[in-house]
Amino acid sequence: MKRVRICSLLLAVVIGAMAIFATACENNSATVTSDMQSEEASAATSVHGAANGMLGGEEIKVVTFGTYEQDGDRSTHNEKIEWIVLKEDFDGMLLLSKYALRAKRVQSEGVPQWGKTEMYKFLNDTFYNEAFSAKEKKYIAEVLLTPGETFTHFNDEATNDPKGYVFLLSKTEVEEYLPNQEDRICTATAYAKQLCGPLNNTEYCDWWTRSISGGSCWTVRTDGSLSDYGFPLNYDNCVRPAIWIKNKQDAQVHNLFR
Predict the structure, then answer these.
(1) Is the separation of the CB atoms in 256 and 136 below 8 Å?
(2) Which terminus, N or C, of the chain has the lesser number of Cβ atoms within 10 Å?
């Protein structure tokens, strides 16, 4: 009888120890899982912040609108265009492409006014029709482009200054909306690099403004500085299109910004 009692007591101790061990393992597993989830959440937050970047010391707002060839593979669908929001009011937004989408000359020959340049025609014809659907075009405002100065939207006054739906920022606008030099630094898409060989050897790119100065345009250099002694108008420099969105509230309702 004593042996039976002793064996029973030992068996109870062993079972109790196993239960305690199992509980400890379960708690440890839950702790590890919780730590992993916290690390993943932290990593996701970090990646999101890095993707958006900073503008003037604050996190920039980026929206997607329209599509355009960017990865360099023309056999696939065009990629969504990412835009930095430079200015926003109750019902409108000024957008600048986050990346240089194209490498193109301003003009092959001569020094015409902005509205007569090949670049102006490309932006408001070829690019405009390739990048935006008929529905998206309804929300892009036609703006008055004063050469070298700031654009004016919703202006119906009689003027010789050109109007356009897609434009390049002027020198004045670059200084106004991107006052910090480091915020102007830009990278080019793979497609843009295919169109301009020298870009393949650089991390950052120069990009055009629409402010013509002599036989060139004011250019934002790779370090973000502005220069009027840049490239000739017939040089295939990088292009960052800009647009002004109207009826922003209605566009958001229709999920045009993704």
Answers:
(1) yes
(2) N
CB 136 within 8 A of CB 66: yes
Residues whose CB falls within 8 Å of the CB of residue 219, separated by 6 or more in sequence, listed in order? 206, 207, 208, 209, 226, 227, 228, 230, 231, 237
The rounded distance, in Å, linking the Cα atoms of 167 and 149 is: 12
Q: How far apart are CA 52 and CA 256, in angstroms?
A: 19
| pLDDT tens digits along 215-230 | 888 999 999 999 987 6
CB-based contacts of 131: which residues, under 8 Å, 6+ apart?
Answer: 66, 67, 68, 81, 241
> How many residues are recorded in the chain?
258
pLDDT higher than 50, residue 59:
yes
